[in-house]
């Protein structure tokens, strides 16, 4: 390679990744980013829905890989596991579970393994809800598996609010010990604007389950109340499936976009409750789960429905103000674009005795798109994006004398 | 073919690191690097800090679970924060159920994204699970702790190692220590092969996964594991002088290991009763034999061998 072609190659490579990132973001910007899933739990009766065929058919569940191309997972409990085996079996992969011609080869193997032997299962595809916080191009992190539980969240959450308001908050004496034994797999390297927010949702629920192991309903209620008290919660969705040995707890909590995050359940030919986020084309007798409702599907039993907004449930420690507490004395910069309305949100703290601070938005070529002077040692900015700002990656650069900080942000028109 | 010299290679690495930085790095309080914003260049010295550690174990029967404990303890120690350059970007094990479960032919993976030394509960559960379910017959297994060099999320994700994929009717595990440029390797693999063996990490590649695919491709092309690996490593080694790697690969019966690494020794030794072989960058004892540079080794309970790919 000559020195003359090197910049061209760099530019092409950069463009390829930029396009991929933007494409990933673009595809996740459809109505309902999150999970596409089918959950199966043993029932007392059988129905008309052929879950096995639906899961295996290219034009069945796999067709949703078009809108959920960011990985797949198959997790299940085995009818005859090795003696002494207690946890679920889990397969995960990156990329779409199918294209127009065929299932992904390892996804197909995962289904072939799971379908004949499962007693309960989850098949999930991913449309990464926040590519800025957790990169899409890797095996599907969900369902998470901890302590014998499988947990799948479908919807969007704010990573910074959950990191500062939940993960880094003081939830009582047991919280630190719980976190010591349950570190996050996707922690954004301790950057509060990065990581997987669904994982924090799961770990918070799991923590509450350790306090009241016999009452998942109350744990869900407290967990949702706590998350819904965070700043920004009005635009989030908390639909979730918790699968354990005794059955599955399915939550529908999507008041922000109830039409985009439905949940249904029906009976399969092989005698299972089938829970899914999209009504399959075949079968009948499907029932919609009402918003702000939990449905418990006991293994081998009839579903039980509970309202999520129960009286007498309190979130306990801490209060909702935790998300607004300072992050500590160190200077920092946190920035991200809100999708609607399109605006750059910045939180910052300057080093002591800083003067003349300035914040700029630059594209990767160094062109300046926005700039303004800052007048406080710390604070927040809500900065409407100019109409001409294109889709792409940008740097937010904060400068105060010799000190500077910068953060990468993704803007989607 | 025009080979990439050190300067060009440095440029390519700079470009790749720029892309990674643009997708993941927030720099605070430090001068902007030369070149593109947030770019990082992986110099040879810095690459030495980007070291994963790994081990492989090929065994005949349950007695080898003692070795599993020693090997995993040594691996765990590499994730402790007091080390100068700890491997703290996750951990992973891959093993085969023994006795075999007729409906589960593929290997079982146990992985985490936190440092092993901060994930004791799951780490210990994983080692206990392997001891309980992997030693009911001859097999092989792999362990790995990561220090991320290439890949998404700046390493803040579940350890991608060991990788798993099928080839020629068998399921394979692969783990790697070292670094190389994934785009160079990708260009050597036909798209048709990648369509049949898709990458899990796209478009930000993990170099080790791409190397695994190249090894698979060469095995399939030549129709022989040993010949395929010798061919693959010969090409990698010959193409680019500062590609370095220590590798474990197994199909569950035989453990293959390759060593092209100037500063990270890769050792091997038999069990005391000769019923097992281990290979490790973090050896559990001091009686291991260092592998020769640019050599492929293979280990099975009934013996071992080696060949040069230089």
Give an overview of the whole structure.
- The complex is a heterodimer of chains A (413) and B (310).
- Chain A is an alpha+beta fold.
- Among the domains of chain A are: 32-158 and 233-307, Aminohydrolase, N-terminal nucleophile (Ntn) domain (Glutamine Phosphoribosylpyrophosphate, subunit 1, domain 1), CATH 3.60.20.10; 327-411, Immunoglobulin-like (Sandwich).
- Chain A has helices at 5-28, 51-56, 105-114, 159-167, 173-181, 197-211, 216-228; strands at 34-42, 72-78, 89-93, 118-127, 144-146, 149-154, 239-243, 247-252, 264-267, 272-276, 287-288, 293-298, 304-307, 332-338, 343-349, 358-363, 368-373, 378-384, 392-400, 403-411.
- In chain A, the strands form four sheets. Chain A has a seven-stranded antiparallel sheet. Chain A has a six-stranded antiparallel sheet with strand order 5-6-7-8-12-13, with helices on one face.
- In chain A, α4 (159-167) packs parallel to α6 and α6 packs across α7 (216-228).
- The two termini of chain A are 37 Å apart.
- Chain B has 310 residues and is an alpha+beta fold.
- Chain B has two domains: 1-41, no CATH class; 51-308, Aminohydrolase, N-terminal nucleophile (Ntn) domain (Glutamine Phosphoribosylpyrophosphate, subunit 1, domain 1, 4-Layer Sandwich), CATH 3.60.20.10.
- Chain B is built from eight helices and 13 strands.
- In chain B, strands 3-2-4-1-10-9-11 form a seven-stranded antiparallel sheet, with helices on one face. In chain B, strands 5-6-7-8-12-13 form a six-stranded antiparallel sheet, with helices on one face.
- In chain B, β12 (295-300) and β13 (303-308) form a beta hairpin.
- In chain B, α7 (207-222) packs across α8 (225-239).
- The two termini of chain B are 19 Å apart.
- The chains are: A alpha+beta (413), B alpha+beta (310).
- The interface between A and B is large, with 63 and 59 residues.
């Amino acid at each position: 390679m000559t020195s003359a072609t090197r910049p061209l190659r760099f530019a092409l490579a950069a463009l390829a990744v930029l396009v991929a990132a933007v494409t990933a973001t673009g595809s996740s910007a459809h109505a309902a980013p999150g999970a596409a899933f089918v959950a199966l739990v043993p029932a007392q009766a059988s129905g008309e829905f052929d879950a096995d065929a639906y899961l295996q058919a290219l034009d069945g569940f796999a067709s949703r890989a078009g809108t959920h191309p960011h990985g797949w997972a198959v997790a299940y409990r085995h009818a005859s596991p090795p003696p002494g085996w207690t946890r679920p079996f889990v397969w995960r992969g990156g990329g779409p579970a199918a294209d127009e011609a065929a299932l992904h080869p390892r996804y197909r193997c995962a289904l072939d393994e799971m379908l004949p032997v499962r007693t309960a299962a989850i098949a999930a595809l991913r449309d990464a809800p926040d590519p800025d916080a957790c990169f899409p191009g890797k095996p599907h992190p969900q369902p998470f598996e901890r302590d014998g539980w499988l947990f799948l969240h479908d919807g969007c959450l704010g990573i910074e609010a959950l990191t500062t308001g939940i993960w880094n908050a003081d939830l009582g004496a047991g919280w630190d010990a719980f976190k010591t034994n349950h570190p996050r797999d996707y922690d954004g390297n301790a950057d509060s604007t990065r990581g997987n927010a669904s994982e924090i949702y799961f770990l918070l629920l799991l923590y509450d389950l350790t306090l009241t192991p016999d009452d998942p309903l109350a744990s869900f209620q407290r967990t949702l109340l706590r998350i819904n008290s965070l700043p920004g919660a009005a635009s989030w969705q908390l639909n979730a499936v918790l699968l354990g040995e005794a059955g599955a707890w399915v939550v529908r909590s999507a008041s922000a976009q109830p039409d985009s995050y439905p949940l249904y359940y029906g009976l399969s030919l092989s005698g299972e409750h089938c829970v899914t986020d999209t009504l399959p084309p075949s079968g009948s007798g499907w029932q919609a789960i009402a918003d702000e409702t939990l449905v418990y599907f006991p293994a081998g039993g009839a579903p039980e429905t509970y309202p999520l907004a129960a009286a007498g449930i309190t979130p306990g420690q801490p209060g909702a103000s935790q998300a607004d507490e300072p992050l500590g004395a160190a200077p920092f910069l946190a920035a991200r674009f809100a999708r609607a309305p399109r605006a750059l949100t910045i939180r910052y703290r300057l080093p002591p005795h800083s003067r003349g601070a300035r914040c700029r938005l630059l594209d990767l070529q160094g062109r300046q798109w926005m700039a303004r002077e800052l007048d406080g040692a710390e604070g927040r900015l809500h900065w409407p994006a100019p109409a001409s700002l294109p889709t792409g990656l940008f740097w937010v650069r904060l400068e105060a004398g010799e000190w500077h900080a910068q953060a990468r942000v993704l803007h989607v028109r | 073919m025009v080979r990439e010299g050190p300067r060009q290679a440095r440029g390519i690495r700079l470009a790749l690191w720029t892309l990674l930085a643009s997708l993941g790095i927030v720099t605070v309080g430090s001068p902007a690097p030369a070149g593109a914003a947030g770019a990082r260049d992986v110099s040879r010295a810095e690459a030495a800090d980007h070291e994963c550690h790994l081990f492989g174990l090929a065994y005949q029967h349950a007695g080898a679970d003692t070795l599993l404990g020693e090997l995993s303890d040594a691996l765990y120690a590499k994730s402790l924060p007091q080390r100068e350059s700890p491997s703290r970007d996750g951990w992973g094990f891959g093993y085969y159920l023994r006795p075999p479960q007729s409906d589960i032919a593929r290997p079982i993976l146990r992985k985490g994204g936190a440092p092993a030394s901060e994930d004791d509960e799951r780490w210990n559960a994983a080692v206990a699970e392997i001891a309980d379910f992997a030693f009911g017959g001859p097999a092989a297994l792999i362990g790995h702790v990561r220090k991320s060099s290439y890949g998404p999320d700046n390493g803040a994700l579940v350890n991608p190692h060991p990788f798993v994929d099928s080839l020629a009717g068998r399921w394979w595990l692969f783990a790697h220590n070292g670094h190389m440029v994934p785009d160079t390797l990708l260009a050597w693999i036909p798209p048709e092969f990648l369509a049949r063996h898709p990458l899990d990490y796209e478009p930000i590649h993990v170099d080790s996964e791409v190397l695994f695919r190249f090894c698979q491709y060469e095995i399939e092309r030549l129709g022989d594991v040993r010949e395929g690996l010798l061919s693959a490593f010969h090409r990698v080694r010959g193409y680019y002088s500062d590609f370095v790697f220590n590798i474990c690969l197994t199909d569950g019966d035989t453990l293959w290991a390759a060593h092209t690494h100037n500063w990270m020794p890769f050792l091997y030794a038999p069990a005391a009763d000769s019923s097992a072989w281990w290979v490790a960058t973090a050896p559990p004892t001091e009686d291991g034999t260092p592998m020769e540079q640019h050599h492929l080794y293979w280990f099975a309970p009934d013996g071992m061998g080696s060949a040069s790919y230089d």
